[in-house]
Write a structure and sequence with these properties.
The protein has 3 helices and 19 strands. It has 336 residues and is mainly beta. Among the domains are: 82 residues, Nucleic acid-binding proteins (OB fold (Dihydrolipoamide Acetyltransferase, E2P)), CATH 2.40.50.140; 77 residues, Nucleic acid-binding proteins (OB fold (Dihydrolipoamide Acetyltransferase, E2P), Beta Barrel); 75 residues, OB fold (Dihydrolipoamide Acetyltransferase, E2P) (Beta Barrel), CATH 2.40.50.140.
Amino acid sequence: AENAVRVGDSIEAIVVRVNDVEGTAQLSKKRLDSIKNWADIESAQEDGTVVEGTVTEDNKGGVVVSVRGIRVFVPASQSGLPKDADMSKLIKQKVRLKITEVNRSRRRVVGSIRAVLQQERREKAEAVWAGMEVGKHYKGVVRSLTSYGAFVDIGGVEGMVHVSELSWNRIRQPSDVVSVNDELEVYILSFDKDARRISLGYKKEEDNPWNQFLAGYEVGSVASVKIVKLMPFGAFAEVIPGVDGLIHISQIASRRIGKPDEVLTVGDVVDAKITAIDNDKQKISLSIRALSEPEPAPRRKTGDNFRTGPQADALVYEISASGEVTGNLPTDDIEP
């Protein structure tokens, strides 16, 4: 009060008492300020204007906020905090709220912090949608996890990172990679503004194990692989983490087998030869059998004295009843 006014200040005040005998009048600045503040509070309710105040106390039902010297009650459900949260954490904090109820005669005012938070969230969401484009990166926070992915808040809007987009490696569930409240850098894979759906990516292309595989292996390379799955038609083996190849049942052993588990067990580590790489489909063919077979003989060079073609190395002929020889045979080895 001592610093409220100074000598020479011009102020507004209301007359509360007049003494005609002494010729004096008693004025009250505080009472006039209170009248103005109540008028402002009523106006804020009518217009939906956001006001600011400081939380002064808490109780079982909510918190009390002082707005221009007027006590405003904010129910717990309108505090913006989760259910059963400790309301005392708001004490002495400055908050923004909307006035939802005013009864001046009973000196009762009710407000909502939650309404302001929801409005701000909607405004942020619209800003995010307006600037959204495929490939754009955002910093987000993991809000929840399901068996099929993680929901990430990217600033008032939530998108989903499918479990297949969380890691290049094989994972059983999203919690193997992320947890609720983790901060992630994600990017837009696709979005539908009308349906309010966003697909997010998390794994980075530079960490793609397929590129690492191509840098270290080629057709003909021998790799130490781990059997990860057995199927009736063959076995899948991990070449490097995140990259698997198929060993067809015909390429498991040099003898005929009925099922892969006659020779292999999940977890086995074996040497296998890379026999084919499909870069477009990112598929690899492996062979254990190829390592137990001798290398094919080198083909003879093409020359005037050598035959070429599929029958060049074959001795296919027939002897008739009269002794005549016909067919494909080296002429140098047959006497006339």
